[in-house]
Amino acid sequence: MSCPFDSREETLLAYSSGELDRAQAAVVAAHLETCSECKSFVTAQKSVWSALDLFEAPAVSMDFDRRLYRRIEEQVSWWDMVVRPFRVALVRRALPIAAAAALTITAGILIERTGAGPAPVAHPQTAHVELQPDQLQSALDDLETLQQFTHALHTESDSQM
Amino acid sequence: MEERVKNGMGGAAAALDLDAELMLRVKEGDGASFGVLLNKHRASVVRFLYRMVQNHAVAEELAQEVFLRMYRSRGTYEPTAKFTTWLFRIATHLALNSLRDGKNEKLQERLDDDSGDLPVRQVSDNRPTIEARMVYEARLDEVRRAIASLPEKQRAAVLMHKYEEMEYSQIARVLNCSESAIKSLLFRAYETLRARLAHMA
Known about the structure:
The complex is a heterodimer. By secondary structure, chain A is mainly α.
């Protein structure tokens, strides 16, 4: 007897695992009444599903997370060891840029607080230090890196206490 | 952030991938979101790897590496696929490498190494009798060998289909092949398993 299903194996697999909706399952069940080949397939596949259910996995170890976080921390410490020789140079480079960025922000706040109005005449003491967008981005990237190094330093000193 | 997820993946279904949203938060430095993802997926990743390599210690070691890589790549993460697709792609890659590296190790050695970790299946509410346990262990051994006999990609596909209940399309994305190729792979795998396990009715 020819099977009515377009994707026979896919349909029978789904039927044998109970994935078909009621209407689809009824169609397959009716077919199985008259097709010994499909019936054998389904019987065998149901046995496979039951057998595979035996293969349970052990529970995850209680210290799984602790070991994982330790490995993550070790990665940060390793990175710190690699860049440690360059830290002073990086700090020296980063500090002026950080200072420039801070100056920009401070100047911006001061200008904002003097109120809206015509653009003030530039005064040397409140001169707006203008950074190009890419320079500012670079400064912010360096600030972030410096913060990460500082955090790693604190983490290391805390762990040594 | 939701808009970014939608645009990155496309489709209404993608917008519901809260795991991808959490991973984007990890990208932005939110460590707590990493913890949430770990809590949610730890068990399934370990289970999958355990059934792939059939050694609990190795499975946990590989699972640690999965989450470590997940953490390490947070800076460049883009939600171009469902989060679990990405996660299981990493896990499958590591499992396949592990299996290839341990090719010379005899299957029996792996099964013996792991025999102490077998979960005990209770028979009714009473402690299992010795005979029942022996029958159970013999059947389990047969199932493990049947799965281990599958070529690695077929094995991965069966484990994702049967135990993680992934759809063909997702398995295809994990294994980086077409849906029709995955169906063909799975049907061959189940044919092998029917030949080996159908008598265990």
